[in-house]
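#dry-run=false #mode=assembly
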Amino acid sequence: MIINASNLVKRYKDPDDKSKSFNAVDGISLSIGAGEIYGILGPNGAGKTTTLEMLEGLKDIDEGSAFINTIDVKQDPYKVKEIIGVQLQANEFFDNMNLVELLRLFTALYNKTNDPVNLLKKVNLVEKAKANTNELSGGQKQRFSIACALVNDPLILFLDEPTTGLDPQAKRSLWDLILDLNKSGMTIVLTTHNMEEAEHLCHRIAIMDYGKLIAEDSPNNLILKHAPNKVREPVQGNMEDVFIALTGHGLRD
Amino acid sequence: MFRSPRLYLTKVFIQIFLRNRQYIFFSLLLPIVILGIVGLNDGESNPIEIGLVDNSSSVISDNFKTKLSTNHLFNIIESDEETLRKDLIKGDLMLILVIPEDMESHDQTTNIKLLVDKSQIQFIESIKPVLNQALLNIEREITKEDAMFDLTIEDVKSRSQNYLDFLLPGIMAFMLMNLSIAGSGFNVVEFRRKGILKRLFVTPIKPIDFVSAIVVARMIIVLGQLTAIFGFALLILDAHIIGSIMHLYLVIIIGILMFLTLGFSIGSLAKTQESVGILASIFIYPQLVMSGVFFPLETLPEYIQPIAKILPLTLVADAMRSIASDGLTLFQTYLDLVGIGIWAVIGTLVSTKLFVWKEVAG
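#status=ok
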């Protein structure tokens, strides 16, 4: 297992009553194998992002432990950061810098070298090499954000709601990118609100609510276990398939 | 070159700044305009326009007129009362002197009438002694009495310094404060708000890498800005610096460091871009009034003076003026330097205490 976390707890002060505290993450244990695409599903405020950020070494772990590729996150957060790639929900960058310059900066922060044009090729943004991030569309920004997460050739890629707010074309293109990266051997951990995305991409899914993990299994097993009797429409697609069929698969940005 | 993460980040911060042409332009415009106004005026106050109506046309009134017009404080315009009154109302004249017909008669006190605009009453109070003196001199000449006292004013420092040279170190200190505060506090809040800080800390750089990169970058930028303003004052306005330029720059470097730490404290205290602006104003403007940069410290109420003397800007301005205008060495300004050092320690403690890096990341 490349990620091993047990009983992770993140405690915050109650905003209404400062003397009380609540657990935003309340005893989460996860084991994720190398090469897996692992999805964390849950409503807003369930603790998905906080869980990711504890694994990434961005937030202190209040209780429990986490090991990434056998490195203790609590002990060596900087060593962990060297082998992971992270895409955050907010993806603002410095103004006045183009994509190539930003990629060079992020590569330099790892004290490594990596060809920025190659990275842009991976995410299909070569023609935007000299553009600033504020000239990119939502989908392009997300793809660029992933390129930034790839500068250190990470073993594990963390994606926090990568497709939220994207149109169907951009979303599907991002799914293809994620599947490609996974095919090359990268372990991917992502959070999402989108059930279809979880089902389409993830080998295993964890469902979180109120800081706790309430279910974990492959999409198929989860359906068999929790919604076995619901008959699936066999022939028809859904509205999104209609939209894609009518507007085509080509990316619009 | 610039392969280490810290150096690369420093380079990027400088690059980002240099690309912000608008900021560069406006950051230099204000001090250049202030210095330009002072420098081109050369510290000479404009002569006061005085209207004069001579109803006497006597030897004594002529004598009086000559005495007044030799005083470079005044510009005498002679005309009839009607015309001059109109000019006074328009605001072209400060006051009108009316010499009565009976100026020559010795047996009674001649009453010279002053027509004034009451809104200028304070100005007039300060002119009255000069007029009195002129009258007294004439009286003595006539009565052949020697004056018992005479007052000569001599500049004990007696060097070729003008108002600009006095103002320059203060303005430089003020600019140094503005640029350093804007460069640290605002940056941190902006980077935090946009999530850029969090994005940086996804990578294995440490908070100290980030802080030292931004400090070094800002130091280089502010030094560049100040050098440009200095160059303008020295080359275009012909200002003078008495002491060692190197010592002056050492004070500037220490001053920038202090204001950067204080700026980081403001940035850490402020949660939003709006509040950082207000906090910075609260920090900057009282110091502008109380630091002796534009107004002498002695004009402040007595209970404020002890506080005014230990303000960061007062210390930097005083050290800079001691070197630039009084020709002291760096070591002779040690009291100021100790004060600056104490403020820098306070700034470092407050900013490290308040700026929780993990919370920035979250």
